[in-house]
Amino acid sequence: MLELQGLSRRFGDVVALDDVSFSVPEGRMVGFVGPNGAGKTTAMRIMLGVLTQDAGDVRWRGGRVDAEIRRRFGYMPEERGLYPKMRVLDQLVYLARLHGLERQDATAQAKRMVELLGVPDRMRDRTEALSLGNQQRVQLAAALVHRPEVLILDEPFSGLDPVGVDVLSGVLREQAEGGVPVLFSSHQLDLVERLCESVVLINHGRVVADGRIADLRAADPRRLLRVEVADRAEPNGWIGAIDGVRVVEPLPDGAIVELDEGVSETAVLDAARAAGRVRHFSVVQPSLSEIFRRAVAR
Amino acid sequence: MSVWTIVSRREFVERARDRGFAISTAITIVILVGIIVVSAILDRGTRFELAAVGEGSDEVARAVAAAASLVDVDVGVIAINDAGTAERAVDGGEVDAAIVDGERVLVRGQPPPQLVALIQGASIRQRTREALLEAGLADEQIDAVLAQGPLPVQSVEPVDPRRQELSRVAFIGVLALYGQLFAYGYWVAAGVVEEKSSRVVEVLLSTVRPSELLRGKIFGIGGLGLAQLLLISVVALATSMAIGRLEFPSGAFAVAGLVLFWFVLGFFFYASLFAVAGSIVTRQEDLQSTMTPLTIAIVASFFIGISATGAPASTLATVASILPFSAPLVMPTRIVLGEAEAWEVALSVTLSVMSTAALIPIATKVYARAVLRPGRIKVRQLLRGV
To answer: Hey, CA dihedral for B64, B69, B71, B77, is it positive or negative?
Structure first.
């Protein structure tokens, strides 16, 4: 288990992290979610030793993480970076060596990675000659080449096309199934929802919610409905007329609404039928963005 | 293999493999060999070709050659049958002058004054001899009168040919050191900027300590600089010896050894400063301005170093040969020319090593603090609390 215990860090007067604690169990993929400037990158940099914390600890398998242990971590920083003039294969071999692999092993692993990520025909090219998408793949290879025990990826999906997203999702799933704890940050909440069993929600340097998405949903007491009424000039105008019902998320042809205590679903359905032809009516679970919005508001 | 040696190996191999590096090394070697060969050709002793036509000319010509050899001038004598051929030979430049019938000298345009003086001298001597014969003197008497050697020439200031040659070799040494310190120092700075601007540094720092990264970079690039310098020295020395350019090879070897030794001292002194200059900017374009103080220090030391090849005992050269920033470009010359006292050398080396040892941890701290920050950073900010 990878654990963060009471991490704090300031930059001058700015508090970037304030007593941040959470854990990533082995074999679990955890989404790290929060608005820009919430402290995700700072937390990840501290885990990798690129930054130092003012207080708190990072632990792996119960022991405090030091430089030797970190060499077995895999990292993909938000600001991607590779040597532009170095050949792809040489670059991966070099990084694998820095992570402690012997020469032969490093070469074999680097070749495996370019195969796995579908760029074997470019491995003798200079990195700068590759398309951005392929450079992204090499960047991922750089994080994986040394068979890391822990994977930490900062916005790995940003800038990827749908095919790239699928490739990366597959690779990360495989890593987690192999027992590696995978922590990644993302703004694409639907993607996090699809990929991760657990999430950590962070805002202004504090963890506002964390745990399994199913548990967070179950803990959300709100009753939400999705309603669509067809053929209206103003699709959601009728909702305001019902007491104890609020729109939480307008949709193109309807809305997600929240019901206060005491308001029954049938009352909403009756009002909808009175307003026009009801095309959709369902009970919905709060989405990750709903859970996040609520956690931040608290 | 420790982490910093892996880093230094990359720095060495990636740069050595670069085509630009191979080309610039080749160009340096070609230029250096060219200079050695050309200067050897230009410096070869003076030689004239002299034609002798008709009666009496041959004796004068041989007298010219004999007199010329006394003053280190080589004169070749060619016998030509008729004046017409001789004139064409003079006109075509095959001979520098022709003596016709022992009574006139044929030259083309402006004659070489040294040759004309030799011919005049020999001719006057020849005619004097004939006049004395006519006056009834015996051959032995005439020979005794005319067998006079040249006057001894005494220099007020003693000339030391060994010193002249050493000073020439030292000049090349200073030139090489200057180029090498500058180029490889710049490479350290540019290498730091490359890692910063490509942002690969964050990937690296997740597994390598900043101090290891910096040490690896300095040793790798310095090692390459030393290897290149060694290669250039070997080629230059071998060429010089092959064409017999060096009268005192041991002195040239000493210069080469000193250049290599002082490159190491100077490079390590400057390298950590170049790394700092690189770490406080993010773009290559901004590097020139942060390197300016280092550029000035190296260029100033270079000019002092050049002046020291002519005046190694001057106060400026003496002081500069002891200060760590200029010593690498000045001290080797003073040592080779025998002007440096043992204590001066010891002091200079000690100061160099000590200041480098003091500089590296400070530079490493500044580098570590600066290398992840974007934009242009003030050094003063980074030095706080170092």
So the answer is: positive
Pick the CATH number of A220-297 from 3.30.70, 2.60.40, 1.10.10, 3.40.50: 3.30.70
pLDDT tens profile B284-331: 888 888 899 999 999 999 999 999 988 888 999 999 999 999 999 999
Task: Return the number of other C-beta atoms located less than 10 Å from residue B133's C-beta.
Answer: 13
pTM for the full model?
0.79
Domain edge (last residue) among B117, B146, B175: B146
The string of pLDDT tens digits covering residues A169-195 is 999 999 999 999 999 999 888 899 999
Looking at the fold, whether B277 and B198 belong to one and the same domain comes out as yes
Angle at B73 between CA B70 and CA B75, to 5 degrees: 105
Interface test with A, best of B204, B207, B284 (most A CBs within 10 A): B207
Residues 6+ apart with CB under 8 A from B204: A98, B195, B213
Q: For testing the chain A interface, which of B7, B206, B208 should be mutated: the one with the most A CBs within 10 Å?
A: B206
CA distance A213 to chain B (A): 30
pLDDT at A121 over 60: yes
For residue B153, is it within any domain?
no
Instruction: Give A76→chain B minimum CA distance, Å.
Output: 7
User: Given a cut of 70, is residue B136 above it in pLDDT?
Assistant: yes
Whether the pLDDT of residue B45 is over 70: the answer is no
**Whole domain around residue B90: which residue ranges?**
45-146
Give, in order, the Cα–Cα distances in Å from A234 to each of A229, A238, B166, B297: 10, 8, 97, 76
- Identify residues of B whose CB sits under 8 angstroms from chain A CBs: 1, 3, 6-7, 10, 14, 194-195, 198-209, 372
Which residue of B6, B14, B202 is in closest CB contact with A50?
Answer: B202
Number of A to B CB contacts under 8 A, please give it: 58
Least CB-CB distance to B207: which of A80, A90, A98?
Answer: A98
Which residues in chain B are closer than 8 Å to A48, comparing Cβ atoms? 205-206
Q: Which residues touch B197 (CB under 8 Å, ≥6 apart)?
A: B282, B283, B284
Kindly indicate the confidence band of residue B43, based on its pLDDT and cuts at 50, 70 and 90.
Answer: low
Do the Cβ atoms of A80 and B10 come within 8 Å?
no
